[in-house]
Amino acid sequence: MKPFLSNHTDSMYNCSQVGCSHPMAHTSYPCGDPYFGSSIVAYGPQAINQQMVPQMLGLASTRIALPVDLAEDGPIYVNAKQYHGILRRRQSRAKLEAQNKLIKSRKPYLHESRHRHALNRVRGSGGRFLSAKQLPQSNAELVTDAYQKKDASEAENHPSSTGENASITFTAISALTSMSSNSVNFPNMAGSSQCSGGLTFGAGALQCTSVGR
Amino acid sequence: MMDNVGGSSSNIAENSGIIREQDRLLPIANVGKIMKQILPPNAKISKESKETMQECVSEFISFVTSEASEKCRKERRKTVNGDDICWALGSLGFDDYAEPLRRYLQRYREQELDRANNPPKRG
C-alpha cells in the first residue's frame, strides 16, 4: 500500500505540475524514465541556458532526487519546491503506519444498520431498487419478497464473527440476485434521483459480489 | 491473519484511536459527483477510479495542509487560515491554482461580510 501510494502521489504531482504549466515550462520539467535520470540532470543546465528569457527567471526548473531507500525501482525526481513537503508527508505516513493507525483494507460498507436496510429493500430487474411508487404494481411478487425477507432476517440472527458475517452477507446477496432473476417483468426506473439511490446501494452489492468471486 | 488483524482494528476503532476510513478519506459519493461534472452525461466511472481518486485527493489535501501548517508553526500561529493555504499552493509550485483560489477567498470573505451586515430577520 505505502509504496504504491508514494509512487502514485509523486506521479500525480509531476503530471499535475507539467499539465498545468504553459508550453515553455513544460520543457523545463521533462518526464523522463527514471533510468535516464542522470541524462536529464546532464541536460538540465543546458536546457536552462537555452531558454533563459526574462519571464523565466523566477521559475525554479531544477529537480532533486528523492532518497533511494524508499523507492525500490531507482531514484524518483520531483519538483524542487515539493521535495521537503514530500519527505514530510512520507514521515507522517510512516509514523501512522508504525502506530498501526491506518486501516489496511476497505470495508464493503461503513454502517451496519444501513447495510441491513439495503438488504431488505425490494429489487427489480437488473438489481436496481424499486421505489415506493412501483411496489403496489407487484402484489404477487410482494408476497414472495416478504418470504425472502423472512429468510434474510433469520440468517441475520446469527452474526458471530467477521467470516461468518461475510458468509451471511454473500448468502443474502445471492438470494436477492435469484429474486431479481425471477422478476423479469419489472419496468426499469427512469427517475434520476431513483437511479442515484439505486447506484449507491447497487455499487455496494456489486462490490460484495466481486469479493465473493 | 492480515484480514483478522484488520477486522479486530475495525471492531475497536473507537477505543484505540484508529483513523477510520470516513475520517481519512473524502466521501466516495462526493468524489464521484465531482468527477462526473467534467464528463459527458452518459459517461460511467468505475468504483476503482473513484477509490483511486479518493486516495489522491485526500493525500493532496494533507500535502498542502502540511505545508501551510509548517509555515504556521514557524510563525508560532495556531490557526491555519485561507491565506496560508494559498501561500502553500504557491510554495509547492501550484501557482496556477493559487491565484484562482485567492480570488475565490476574496469573494468568499466579501459574502461573509455581507451576511454579517445583513443578518437574516427572525420570524
From TrEMBL, chain A:
Transmembrane segments: none annotated. InterPro entries: CCAAT-binding_factor_CS, NFYA. The keyword Nucleus applies. Its main location: nucleus. One of its GO terms (molecular function) is DNA binding. Pfam families: CBFB_NFYA. Keywords: Activator, DNA-binding, Nucleus, Transcription, Transcription regulation. It is found in: Nucleus. Component of the sequence-specific heterotrimeric transcription factor (NF-Y) which specifically recognizes a 5'-CCAAT-3' box motif found in the promoters of its target genes. This is Nuclear transcription factor Y subunit.
TrEMBL record, chain B:
GO terms for cellular component: CCAAT-binding factor complex. Gene3D superfamilies: Histone, subunit A. Keywords: Abscisic acid signaling pathway, Activator, DNA-binding, Nucleus, Transcription, Transcription regulation. GO terms for biological process: abscisic acid-activated signaling pathway; regulation of transcription by RNA polymerase II. Residues 25-89 form the Transcription factor CBF/NF-Y/archaeal histone domain. GO terms for molecular function: DNA-binding transcription activator activity, RNA polymerase II-specific; DNA-binding transcription factor activity, RNA polymerase II-specific; protein heterodimerization activity; sequence-specific DNA binding. PROSITE patterns: NFYB_HAP3 (PS00685). It is found in: Nucleus. It comes from the Eukaryota. Its main location: nucleus. It holds the Pfam family CBFD_NFYB_HMF. Belongs to the NFYB/HAP3 subunit family. PANTHER family: CCAAT-BINDING TRANSCRIPTION FACTOR-RELATED, NUCLEAR TRANSCRIPTION FACTOR Y PROTEIN. This is Transcription factor CBF/NF-Y/archaeal histone domain-containing protein. It comes from Glycine max. The lineage of its organism: Eukaryota, Viridiplantae, Streptophyta, Embryophyta, Tracheophyta.
